[in-house]
Amino acid sequence: MMAAAGAGGISLLAASAGASGAAPAASAGMAHGKARPAPRPEWIYDATVELEKDIPMGKTIRGDRFRVPIIGGTFSGPEMSGRILPGGFDWQLLRRDAYWELSADYFMETTDGVQIHVLNQGLWYSASGDWPATYAVTTPQLEAPDGRYEWLNRYIFTGTVGQGGTAEKPAVQLSIFRLLNP
């Protein structure tokens, strides 16, 4: 939340206090004793992200760190499609509780030549340590230039991660959704 505002602006916190200046009631997240509805997901695209084999970086204070080069792939959905550009990385951390923290940073290029930056944070877990995962969820942040795809800058996204390749040619399958008000 915004804690302060610039000249002439009002912070989100101050706006929620209302005209009286009083803080909102503790039950403000409840409408007449009922929880507010959850955001509604809308499918945006599926992607196959091609990877090189993981490169162990060593044990750290937080767990075992790996670097996984992103070497290409494709994505397709109703409003955009294109390719995953080589040169990105997925920084992975295997925690002591056997969960993997994922942090991928790469670019996609649409079929009409627009580059979109993707910073995708996620969490992956499987009791066996292999596919299928018990939990595999991401929260990508998409950054698009002004123009046809600038709408990507105005939403929160979530996604799922599935197996998309082989041991010799690793890849992951992503399904990405924007979260809309109910």
Automatic annotation (TrEMBL):
Q: Which InterPro entries match?
A: UPF0311
Q: Does the keyword Signal apply?
A: yes
What are the protein's UniProt keywords? Signal
Residues spanning the signal sequence: 1-25
Q: Does the keyword Signal apply?
A: yes
Short name of one Pfam family for this protein? DUF3237
What family is this? Belongs to the UPF0311 family.
- HAMAP family to which the protein is assigned, alphabetical: UPF0311 (MF_00775)
The protein's name in its UniProt record: UPF0311 protein CJD35_17215
Taxonomic classification, please? Bacteria, Pseudomonadati, Pseudomonadota, Alphaproteobacteria, Sphingomonadales
